[in-house]
Amino acid sequence: MSSGEVQTAEYLQRRWLNIRKLLERSGPFCHPDFEPSAEILDFTMNSCKILIVGAGGLGCELLKDLALMGFKKIHIIDMDTIELSNLNRQFLFRKNDIGLSKAKCAVEFVNKRVPGCEATAHHCAIQDMDDGFYRQFHIVVCGLDSIVARRWLNGMLASLLQYNDDGSLDQSSVIPLVDGGTEGFKGNARVILPGMSACIECTLDLYPPQITFPLCTIANTPRLPEHCIEYVKVLQWSKENPWGNTIPLDGDDPHHVAWVLEKAQERAMKHGISGVTYRLTQGVLKNIIPAVASTNAVIAAACATEVFKLASSCCVNMNNYMVLNIADGVYTYTFSAERRADCVACSNSTKVMALESDATLQTIYTKLCEDQLFMMKSPGITTIINGRNKTLYMSSIKSIEERTRDNLKKKITDLGLYNGAEILVADVTTPNTITIKLNVIENLDVDMPS
Amino acid sequence: MIKLFSLKQQKKDEEGTARAGGSQKKATAAQLRITKDLNELNLPKTCSTEFPDQDDLLNFKLIICPDEGFYRGGRFVFSFKVGPNYPHEPPKVKCETAVYHPNIDLEGNVCLNILREDWKPVLTVNSIVYGLQYLFLEPNPEDPLNKEAADELQSNRRLFEQHVQRAMRGGYVGSSYFERCLK
Amino acid sequence: MASPSPKSPEQSEKNKQYDRQLRLWGDHGQIALEKGHICLINATALGTEILKSIVLPGVGAITIVDDCTVSEEDIGSNFFLETSSKGLNRGSETLRLILELNPAVQGHAVQEPTGQILQENPDFFKSFTVVIATALGEKTIKELSQHLWDINVTFVLGRSVGFLGSFRIQIKEHAIIESHPDNEQPDLRLDVPFPALSQYLDSIDIETLDLKDHGHIPWIVIIYKAVMKWQKIQNDNRWPMSRKEKNEVRDLIREFIRKDENGIPINEENFEEALRAVTTALCPTFLPVKIQDLIYCSAATNLTKESSPFWIMCSALRGFIEAEGKGKLPLRGVLPDMTASTEHYVKLQNIYRAQAAFEAEAVYRKVQEIINQLHCDCISEADVKLFCRHAHNLHLVRGSSIASEYQSGPVASYIARHLEEPDVMMVHYILLRASEMFRSEHSRAPGDWEPEGDIAILKACVSKLLTDVSCPPFPKDDHVHEMCRYGGAEIHSVSAFLGGCIAQEAIKIITKQYKPVNNLFVYDGASTNTATFTF
Fold first, then answer.
1. Quick one: pLDDT at residue C1?
2. Which of A168, A170, A249, A310 is deepest in the core (most CB within 10 A)?
3. Rounded to whole angstroms, how far apart are CA atoms A436 and A448?
4. What top-level branch of life does the organism fall under (chain A) (predicted)?
5. How is C449-481 classified by DSSP, letter by letter?
6. What domain range is C203 assigned to?
7. Other CB atoms within 10 A of residue C238 CB
8. Mind telling me the catalytic residues of B?
9. b/e per residue, C508-533, with b = 16+ CB within 10 A?
């Protein structure tokens, strides 16, 4: 006798009645694929695996939101530990938790609060996990404050895409990425279908560059209190090394901050500049971005709604980028960010090169220059072997050319290449470095029946 | 129009399941871009590069040996560190050779606009190389890092030239000592 | 090596905890927030999500009014309930779990129904800074909003059904000194320089500066000199206004740029900046109409002992503008950053600051005169200085009562105009209202049991509302159908979105910083669309 006959399966419980109404009923604005049924909640609860990247302001909200939207198999990854300044918005943490893993603390709290939730924590950097880890998820939702981490994750999801022989995208390899970001009273939320819609790398220019001051202004003509602090940070610290040569400036060390403050105030005083405060010093040293609970709540909620739509098809997704500003009233604007045909991350630039198993690197080089498919001028060839970059041949740089020239004579198998391996090729004839997949055919002579 | 995406049919592998040919690590966007930059590096004849590890394209040195101007005959080494956020952020460039120069301080900090406030992702390593080379041909006393050198260049070019020569031969200028850096 | 030991930083626990938000509303904003007392009526998921984002930043106190017992659906959508909460009072349970977020916040729970409080103890609401209500019945909305309007307590009404939600802010009058505009026009007075500025500008002769100084004079000086030269050429003391005239000034600036031995212009960053700044710098000093309206409105001209500090300061500001100010607002005293030598920049900055302090002092003297006449409470000099610094961006909200939405009149025709456009977000508002009407008539949400049967009944409610605003019925039933599909469900992520927004609106109102929504906000999570309407 299955347990379902004695007690109601969880997805049929009264507790979930609110979302069940959306999932078990059809409406005029549903996704064309949507077929209302109780099984959708069963799927979101028991099959759909979600990864939340970041357990900070957005991550805490996302974990709560998704747990209450009927997701159970949620993983959350964050390498950070809890600090006092997190507590004004990261509502799953208390003063007693300071110093503990954000991911673990958040998971523990939500699993306890929401019965049946099976969230899993990963207290590590996103780069510590391999493609096998990321491939297990149906949806990745990301609440990060770092562009580097976003770009890395975006690249990872793009690299998991599979293409059919005709070059078309195999949609079953697409892992949607829902991305949120906040800064003070501003934020954005977006839905990315890697390989199908604009990705992080396609729209990199939407991220404003960090404000930097000219070095000579800092050194000679300071005008703002920020210039004085930057002077101590960029020039004076390495000159004086107050804690010894090996100790870099740490914006989290209150003694370091106090030292910089004191020196910056001296400099400001000397130049008649006012406004060097502890708060400003810390802000400049750590590049602190203001953050408040409300903005994080709004952006995370917008992301959670999109995850719910993706998982259930109960409604068409946002297309595809929403900006928010709650400083002057509440303002949102949703627009369709466009893909870049030559995007380094998500355009399918992978080409295939057929080779015989006794081919040398010279064979590849010649094919790149002479084959109709490539017709390159002076290709530089690199690859990744056992996770490490390897330069196979690059003629444009003399020292590298000299050291890689011998590779040309080597058999590709002796260089660590194999059937299915990918090489990266840069050349003036293509806007980006392209990926070429090697298709190594067994030498015909060997298998030929005589 | 984009075909509507539906998650419904998807089946996911368990963690760790490798797919054929899918386990090779992918290059990062920064890696792809620097490969492109370096492959198309078109150095002026006064410049050369050195790669301590030919497999690590993110860390290298640029050597400039000016053949005209105040710094003719010198040999100046710059270290380039390309970070994971390249080209969103510029590479970190430092001058490893002690030099008496208005725009380079004694710690090796270089005041070149495209290395900081005017960096744009469309710029390349080549743009920086040309920028650095130009600093040796036309030191700019308007935006000094070494104020002493800048003031001197403006007030007494002859003296400045002598000091540059002395520094390149190895010796003291004021209270600062310079290692010999003539070719 | 021995560690250097600079004096240890003076930063309190509280400052560290609130650091990221203090950078948005400052220490004075935080003090105001800590004096705020929020009343929440009905601790639904929307209600607790609002409180969460007010309690975390440290509001003074919260009071939850809720007479409901916790249901299973509540637990499924409300994070501040536990399995063990089932059957207990919803207000007390959510209060207990919300207060865990911030021990500095005081909390109370009241288990009486709102209607009863309104009848038996209407003064109860007087002690709150803001009253927020969710999931309120039509009758209570009308009665409560009227009462709060009468006793002048700010009211925010939140709604969350399916993918739809809205909030309406009812506030009689809300004056904002620090509106934090995104980009502020600099206040430079180049067209009407005050004596210290004239003196400084006249002391510099661009032509004779050595090259190094030439590259380090602020663009303010460059533009001023170019205009002087332009006026000389024109033989006219007019200020250049037209596009053509501004271009002529730009040409003169280009002539100032030094040339090298080959006659090629030298790249001077300050001159580049001057060329870019011409449009903003040549904008003449004027009194914005918005501020003029403010200082001449009756609240500012007919002061009483009860007048708020804001109106007293507006009155003093008028006095200043009519006398010493000669038609101008007090100088802001903020110099934008620009390429310049430290010496030039700091000197110029001090000139602006000193003049701003001087003018603010004149306003302060007028404030004191008024206070002496009216015998009312003191206003500190710091407050007057803050007021003067932000005088260009003072903002006043005069709201309308929620009751007016239920009457024929200007609000009805406003709604009608938007429905005719047709504005789908206004359609959503009508549907939220119609389902409240449905609920009051049938004691359940439309589509609560099954959607199809309720479509016709909800449609009748919609028709009634549309008749009230003299609008034809909707051509299609799709939105009515969608509302019945929702069946009154409260979706957590939709409530969380609105909760974050409403919390911030409450904080804006308590701190009197940043502009709140004026006055109805509608959200559709299905289409990711939002709109603001002003009733």
1. 45
2. A310
3. 28
4. Eukaryota
5. S-HHHHHHHHHHHHHHHHHHTT-PPPS-SHHHH
6. 195-281
7. 10
8. 111
9. bbbbbbbbbbbbbbbbbbbbbbbbeb
Whether residues C125 and C225 share a domain: the answer is: no
- Asked if C212 is an interface residue toward chain B (Cβ–Cβ < 8 A), one would say yes
Q: Same domain, yes or no, for C25 and C171?
A: yes
Task: State pLDDT tens for residues C18-31.
Answer: 999 999 999 999 99
Domain boundary residue, one of C486, C504, C522: C486
| Domain match, C241 and C313 both | no
* ipTM for the complex shown: 0.96
Q: In the numeric block, which tokens belong to residue A271? A: 């130049």
pLDDT at C128: 98
Residue of C nearest to A272 (CA): C346
pLDDT in tens, C329-378: 999 999 999 999 999 999 999 999 999 999 999 999 999 999 999 999 99
Contact yes or no for A312/A11 (Cβ under 8 A):
no
Which of C281, C303, C335 corresponds to the end of one domain?
C281
Q: Which residues of A touch B117 (CB under 8 A)?
A: 212-214
For the stretch C199-255, pLDDT in tens is: 999 999 988 888 778 989 999 999 999 999 999 999 988 999 999 999 999 999 999
**Residues of chain A predicted below pLDDT 50:** 1-5, 447-450
From the list A105, A199, A202, A216, the catalytic residue is: A216
CB-based contact B161:B70 (threshold 8 Å): yes
Among candidates B162, B158, B153, which has minimal Cα distance to B135?
B153
Residue located via tokens 């293409």 = A163
CATH code assigned at C21: 3.40.50.720
Percent of chain A residues topping a pLDDT of 70: 97
A 385-414 residues with CB below 8 A of B?
387-391, 394, 396-400, 403-404
- Residue C482 within any structural domain of the chain: yes
Give the closest-approach CA distance of B31 to chain C in angstroms: 34
Catalytic site residue A124? no
Please state, in angstroms and as integers, the Cα–Cα distance from residue A267 to each residue in A1, B116, C11, following that order. Answer: 80, 22, 22
- DSSP, collapsed to helix, strand or coil, labels residue A423 as strand
Q: Is C372 a member of any domain?
A: yes
pLDDT band at C8 (very low <50, low <70, confident <90, very high): low
Q: For tokens 């979930």, name the residue.
A: A16
C49 and C143 assigned to the same domain: yes
pLDDT tens, position by position, C278-316: 999 999 999 999 999 999 999 999 999 999 999 999 999
Same domain, C407 and C386: no
Query: Residues C70, C138: one domain?
Result: yes
C28 lies in the same domain as C153 = yes
Strand partners, C132: C40, C156
Whether C334 is covered by a domain: the verdict is yes
What is the pLDDT at residue A372? 86
Report the pLDDT value the prediction gives residue C209, as an integer from 0 to 100.
87
Given an 8 Å threshold on Cβ–Cβ distance, is B26 in contact with A382?
Answer: no
In angstroms, what separates the C-alpha of A352 from chain B's closest C-alpha?
13
The pLDDT value given to residue C276? 95
E-only strand ranges, chain B = 47-50, 59-64, 76-81, 92-95, 171-173, 176-178
DSSP state letters, A79-123 = --B--GGGTTT-TT--GGGTTSBHHHHHHHHHHHHSTT---EEE-
Residue C44 and residue C155 in one domain? yes
Domain count, chain C: 4
Torsions phi, psi for C158 (to 5 deg): -105, 145
Contact A18 C180 (CB under 8 A): no
Please name the chains neighbouring B, where neighbouring means 3+ C-beta pairs under 8 angstroms.
Answer: A, C
**Does some domain include residue C181?**
no
